[in-house]
Amino acid sequence: MTLNLKYFFFISVGLVGCYFFNQGYEKLIFPNNELLNNKFSFQNIEDKKENLDVELNEILEKNIEKKSKLKLNKIEIIVKEGNTFFSILNNFNLTDKLIFEIINEIEKFLDLKKLKTNDKIYFYQNENNEIKKIEFNLDIENKLILNIDNEIYIKKKKLDKKFYEISKEFIIFESLYSDGIKNKLPQDILIKLIKMFSFDLDFQRDIRKNTKVSVSYEYNEIIETNKIEYKDINYAQITIGSNTLEYFKFLTDAGYYDYFNREGKNVKKSILKTPLDGARLSSNFGMRKHPISGYNKMHKGVDFAAPKGTPIYAGGNGVIEFVGTNGGYGKYIRIRHNNEYKTAYAHLSKFNKGITKGARVNQGDVIGFVGSTGISTGPHLHYEILFQNKHINPLKLKLPSGKTLEGKELKRFKKSYKEILANHLNLLYE
Questions:
Q1: What is the pLDDT of residue 286?
Q2: What does the buried/exposed string (b/e) look like for 32-70 if buried means 16 or more CB atoms within 10 Å of the residue's CB?
């Protein structure tokens, strides 16, 4: 009996010892007991590895930026006619291998064949005249930065910008364009304003002295370069005597921005009355004595005098039916808009790129440029509108309206335009 008790005692001590040894071993290997509590996994190890990689990349990027700021001399290169990026790089003390690597990296972001005359490229040299950094302006708000250290590191950087909205109001004494410039309305916004109202107004005949213009628009200021990026017009109004035209910017249910009056009628009409900016009506539609032949002849369009090279816009959405030289018309384009309407443009100096027979164009696209080709006394656009293949007077055309808002979309627009108008007046008189 005594022997059995001794065996039982030693076995119990052994089991207790094994238990405490096992607990101590687990704490030594897995101090938080993660394996037993299903909190520890190989995925956690992978996640920690990825986080470490990201942190290392960020540290590497910051180190490269630090090095790039140390005593670097900035050199501005303006691309000249006949220059290539390869020829520009050859002016610096770079090996052929490094030149190839630089071009290869930049080509991932930018097609160097599209470098234009007067484009700017910035090179940064250290005290040993070694190129350590190259910068390109991709557009107004993005630049490409290439750092050269033991390895080449390249990135696209979006520049910080501030958003502004501003309202202006002025009276026309001479013309919309000249008085707009005098009242410090940006040229980009003026052009948008002219395009917007060209559906309703002939700017040579309809605008009178004391016409009132009121406009609200947006722009961004790029902080690093102080450049201005003009955005959209939110509100525009032109008042001629007792007649008021006004339009509001609105995001339609189809997901695009357009302009509508208070009744929800679209600013766009089927065909533009005047398909170019700042032109002067020099010859009207109808019978006239031809300035060159001297014979009385039907003038089947209207002439707009404008400087050579002035852009000409497509009068409406459509397909190019004819492009080329057309007798006395000189360089000539005809656009088919639908089954009934066509527009024609004559005496052009040249056609815009991509304007070919069968090409589709949208209203406002630049299709060519004012010239004096064919039988012509000077630079001007001869503009024709054909209805069912018969010439009609563009200035007397009753133009059908574009999209009209209805139902819930109209209700949403009315709420939106009231907010836009209140904001415009607040900005105008604050």
A1: 58
A2: eeeeeeeeeeeeeeeeeeeeeeeeeeeeeeeebeeebee
* β-bridge partners, 169: 214
Please state whether beta strands 331-336 and 341-351 pair in parallel, antiparallel, or not at all (unpaired).
Answer: antiparallel
**Which residue reads 């009628």 in tokens?**
265
Chain centre distance of CA 219: 12
Give the start-to-end residue ranges of the domains of the chain: 13-65, 69-158, 162-260, 280-396
Q: What is the pLDDT of residue 174?
A: 86
What does the alpha-carbon distance between residue 391 and residue 175 come to, in Å, rounded to a whole number? 30
Same fold, 69-158 and 280-396: no
Is 69-158 assigned to CATH 3.40.50.300? no
Enumerate residue ranges in the chain where pLDDT < 50: 3, 28-30, 33-42, 45, 54, 68
Distances in whole angstroms, Cα of residue 380 to Cα of each of 129, 202, 314, 344: 54, 16, 16, 14
**Dist. CA 40–CA 42, nearest whole Å:** 7
Cα–Cα distance measured from residue 284 to residue 389, given in angstroms and rounded to the nearest whole number: 20
Integer distance in angstroms from the first to the last C-alpha of the chain?
107
Q: Phi and psi dihedrals of 198, rounded to 5?
A: -70, -15
Element (H, E) at 146: strand 142-148
186 and 232 Cβ atoms separated by less than 8 Å: no
- Per the CB < 8 A criterion, the answer to whether 303 and 259 are in contact is no
- Between the alpha carbon of residue 259 and those of residues 4, 172, 324, 405, 414, the distances in Å are 102, 23, 35, 11, 13
Helix (H, G, I), strand (E, B) or coil at 109: coil
- Predicted confidence (pLDDT) per residue in 263-305, tens digit: 998 887 768 888 887 677 767 665 555 555 555 566 778 898 8
State the amino acid at position 197 in one-letter form: F
Sorted by sequence, the CB contacts under 8 Å of residue 114 that are 6+ apart come out as none
Range 162-260 has CATH code 3.10.290.10: no
3-state secondary structure of 225: coil
Residue with tokens 């299709």: 367
Tokens representing residue 114 in the block: 């599209």
- What gap in Å lies between CA 236 and CA 114, rounded to an integer? 37
Domain 280-396 indexed as CATH 2.70.70.10: yes
